[in-house]
From TrEMBL, chains A, B:
It comes from the Bacteria. SUPFAM superfamilies: Homeodomain-like, Tetracyclin repressor-like, C-terminal domain. This is TetR/AcrR family transcriptional regulator. The keyword DNA-binding applies. Pfam families: TetR_C_1, TetR_N. Keywords: DNA-binding, Transcription, Transcription regulation.
Length: 238, 238
DNA sequence: ACCTGAACACCGTTCAAGT
DNA sequence: ACCTGAACACCGTTCAAGT
């Protein structure tokens, strides 16, 4: 009896099952979605799994390797939200929207992945999707490659930026966000006439508007580049 | 004599001068530019200043307040690199280039600022510059505000993304970066035909090309939106 | 008035010890 | 074969004590 007493006091612990990479990834997603200061710490993960924090190192070389696996899961979740049968522009638009939605669901993950590649299956699927879309738009070869990177890297950066903001302690986030309606409202009209003249408009801009403008800028660029190439080829042929 | 012995053994310490916010900011810039794992830690800063690490808290409420002051200095450095007399497009292009250059000079700072505002003088100057440029492009009111945010936030996100990548330990950065020439080269041709077909082009894309495509996409968007508004106004007038 | 330095509550990770 | 838990080398920050 004495030998089981510590297991007794934490009845949720272990539940008889062995730890597995799968279980660790799923627990990571749960705590990442729950948010908070310790949204993705090894100790919090051990708590969620009901085991010693360091047990994770039996299944993943280090926390970074776990992060990449977890992140690839979130990429899959975003991908699954993109409907089939859309034309290239709507397909990329949907991918951008899903990436933001899922990214905000697991902000600690997307903020850490803003400049990373998972090099795992779901990333391959997303790359294939974007390459298919830019091909459908009319880009080939090096043009397709550059514009794929432009789109993919930008979405990653935007989502990571949004997510990092959400991770902030509410008080600091508020200070950063309310800058437009507070500090900027007090800007010296002599030195900063443009700011002074647009103070109301600057305070009224929403994240949705900004994200839409960013995504549309990228889609427009792909479309225009394809038109440029077509025009050049027509000129060469004629 | 005994009372001075500890000061003796560290002759570079204090050098008689009081600590000041200025001195702390400049020391922060020096260690941030030098890079490394402890590029911006309180302990490393104390070492650089030749004083106890916690002395910094006499002059800044916390590390975040110091970060914002340091970041605003880097914004000023970027701004000073933008030549006068350029037309709006070249002015924004120059700002984007200088932001990247300075951001990579202090990667630890720009990676931390990717989703932040400093709410300090040099940020006001940059906002004024961008607003002036979009106004020159032909945007007014809410359009000017949204497209300013689109441009400003995107540059911040791109530079932060680049900087975060550079901060990585070389081995991990290499793994992430070489993905295109390693993992992706091994992609299954059946499942990922687009990737397989563009493997060489994907591996050959440079950061400079990607950054140029991203920036030009934003500039094009501003120009096209202005043209749209002009066309709508002409239609309403005629 | 300002700086010091021990201390606290955290991190990720290692490793000898358990089972 | 796998997990445990003490320990290590770090963080940012607080606070009583020095000068």
């Amino acid at each position: 009896m004495a030998t089981h007493s510590s297991a007794r006091t934490a009845t949720s612990k272990r539940s008889g099952s062995q730890l597995s990479p799968e279980a660790i990834i799923e627990a990571s997603l749960r705590i990442a979605a729950r948010g908070g200061d310790d949204a993705f710490t090894v100790r919090r993960l051990g708590q969620e799994l009901g085991c010693d924090p360091t047990a994770v190192y039996r299944h993943f070389r280090d926390k970074d390797e776990l992060l990449l696996s977890v992140a690839d899961r979130t990429l899959g979740e975003a991908l699954d939200g993109v409907p089939h049968g859309l034309a290239w522009r709507d397909r990329l638009r949907a991918l951008a929207a899903e990436s933001l939605r899922v990214g905000m669901k697991y902000p600690v993950v997307s903020s850490l992945m803003a400049s990373r590649t998972t090099r795992r299956p779901n990333e391959f699927r997303i790359v294939e999707l974007i390459l298919g879309a830019v091909h459908e738009a009319g880009l080939t070869g090096a043009d397709a490659a550059v514009h794929y990177r432009m789109f993919g890297d930008s979405i990653l950066a935007y989502v990571g930026q949004h997510a990092a903001l959400q991770l902030f302690a509410p008080t600091e986030r508020e200070a950063d966000q309310s800058a437009w309606s507070r500090e900027y409202r007090l800007a010296d009209r002599e030195r900063f006439p443009r700011i002074a003249g647009l103070v109301e408009e600057l305070a009224a801009v929403t994240h949705e508007e900004i994200y839409a403008a960013r995504v549309e800028a990228l889609l427009d660029k792909i479309e225009r580049r394809a038109a440029e190439v077509r025009a050049a080829e027509a000129a060469a042929d004629g």
